[in-house]
Design a protein that fits this description.
Length: 248
């Protein structure tokens, strides 16, 4: 993860890339991921946690559908974290997170995550800086626990969409019948807090770096999906998993 500000990082693919060639590469990667996932399930020795963060309309749902949708559903699941319930608020902020982490042999995808408790809460003034810093240190320890004591590989993605592309996508939800179900008037209000979100995201990248972040240019879906598929494929391959033999 770079220490540069998000405003200095491109949200688009390098101009030299050929869209169709990249999409073809993505298809090959996804086919290989299917086999790697089978080994993950069969070996039952490691887990993979994929954390996807990003502003509204950055394409989190699309990534989950297009990168993970062809995998064996018995070995992959998605958890979306919304406003905490009364029960969840009566516990520490990581309580609802910890009970949703993947068991061995599983891939778990967090559509938003524990980082919302140091992002949205700070943007709206529900969490002061001192409390947020303590929470971020707790997040580092929590992620280290998963990595070192449950053989969990963690991949953290921030979908880096431009402000103009976000506005375009939000407006599409008003006019496109296939996207109207996603429309939420509050998304436009949250978009006005762009600078505050960028500031607190940059804090997360700097302080919560025990497990590194990947900043994914996300204005073009084909490039975003390629980069994420590539990272997931690489992570699974590096586990060097094999099929177990016959049980004796």
């Amino acid at each position: 993860m770079t220490n540069r500000k998000l405003s200095e990082l491109s949200t688009r693919a390098p101009g030299r890339l050929d869209k169709q060639k990249i999409k073809s590469k993505t298809e090959i990667i996804l086919a290989e991921m299917d086999e790697l996932q089978n080994r993950l399930i069969a070996s039952n020795s490691h887990a993979l946690l994929v954390i996807i963060q990003g502003m509204d309309a950055s394409g989190k749902d699309g990534v989950i559908r297009n990168v993970f949708g062809s995998l064996n559903p018995l070995g992959v699941s998605v958890q979306s974290f919304k406003v905490p319930t009364a029960e969840e608020l009566s516990h520490d902020f990581l309580w609802r997170i910890h009970k949703n982490v993947p068991g061995k042999g599983m891939i778990k995808i967090f559509n938003r995550s524990h980082y919302e408790d140091v992002l949205v809460t700070r943007v709206h003034g529900w969490c002061d800086d001192e409390t947020a810093l303590k929470r971020m240190h707790a997040i580092n320890e929590f992620e280290s626990l998963l990595v070192h004591h449950n053989q969990t590989t963690i991949l953290k993605f921030y979908l880096h969409v431009s402000k103009s592309e976000q506005q375009k996508r939000l407006k599409e939800r008003i006019h496109d019948p296939q996207k109207m179900w996603k429309y939420n008037e509050k998304d436009f209000e949250e978009a006005k807090l762009w600078k505050e979100y960028m500031r607190y995201y940059e804090d997360c990248f700097k302080i919560c770096s025990t497990v590194p972040w990947t900043i994914v240019p996300s204005d073009q879906n084909w490039y975003k999906e390629y980069l994420i598929a590539q990272k997931v494929h690489e992570a699974l391959k590096q586990l060097h998993l094999t099929y177990p033999g016959l049980k004796k």
